[in-house]
Structures are given as C-alpha cells and as structure tokens.
Specification:
The structure is a single chain. This protein is of the alpha+beta class. It contains 5 helices and 4 strands; from the N terminus they run αααβββααβ. The protein has helices at about 5-20, 30-45, 50-70, 100-110, 115-135, and strands spanning about 75-80, 85-90, 95-100, 135-140. A hairpin with a 4-residue loop joins β1 (about 75-80) and β2. α3 (about 50-70) crosses α4. It is globular, with a radius of gyration of 14 Å.
C-alpha cells in the first residue's frame, strides 16, 4: 500500500523527535525550533558529504513542516521541480508556502545567518497577514 506524502512527512518528523528526545523536548511546539536550531549548529561541523546532508535536511525539514502544520494548518504537495515537499497554509483564503528542506540545508551550510526560529517567525507573520488580507507568499 502506497503511503501519502503527509504520512511520510509525519512519520519522518515523529522519528526525528523520538531519535533526538535525549537532546530536548521536541514536542512540535514553536519553541522547540530553538532546540532544532541549536542541534543543526552542532551538526554542521560533521555533515560534509551530500548523502548525510540530504538525510539531515529531510529529517529536520519534516520536523519543521510538522511544527507548522500542527500549529497553523496546511497541506503538503510535492514540488517536482525542487524534488521535495512544500507545505501550503491557508488555502483557499490565502496561501503561505514553505520549503523547509532548503532552509535546513542553508542553516547547515551557511550557519546562523539562516536561523530557523527567525525563518519560522517570518512564516507565522505571513500566515497572520494572510488571514487578514488574503496575502500569498513563499517564505524562503
């Protein structure tokens, strides 16, 4: 039986939370993204090859997606051109999209300039604006 994209994202996010439970409370709350950001800062010194980097981007990205979906709603789509999922929140009244895998990659490669909580705050602000005005955006 083929699993849906949403099932895959949820399963990966829950595995991430369980696997790193010894590092803090990954409870899918917005505040837990600070723990994730700290963890990615530590990991960046050890992830230098593409395969492990892709794996970390997938696991941590799914966790970010699920924090967003569980707190603000949304639906997953497969973005074929980027070969990764995208979460779209607010349809049909508004549309705010995030590509979490790209942001995790940026955090690992570029360091704190790609801070995850700051990124997520931009997403939350866009969702709030969307609720008021019908705003549409992709948060990068």
């Amino acid at each position: 039986m083929q699993r849906s994209l949403q099932d895959d994202v949820i399963s990966t996010a829950e595995s991430f939370a369980a696997n790193f439970a010894d590092r803090g409370n990954f409870d899918f709350g917005v505040e837990s993204l600070r723990l994730l950001d700290d963890l990615l800062d530590e990991i960046r010194d050890f992830v230098t090859d593409d395969d492990p980097l892709d794996s970390v981007c997938s696991m941590a990205g799914c966790y970010i997606f699920e924090v967003a979906r569980r707190n603000y709603g949304g639906k997953y789509y497969w973005a074929a051109e980027k070969e990764q999922p995208v979460l779209v929140t607010g349809e049909p009244a508004f549309s705010v999209s995030i590509f979490a895998f790209d942001k995790v990659r940026g955090r690992i490669v570029n360091g704190s300039e790609d801070n995850i909580p700051f990124y997520f705050d931009g997403y939350v602000d866009a969702v709030e604006e969307g609720k008021k005005t019908g705003y549409c955006a992709t948060i990068v």
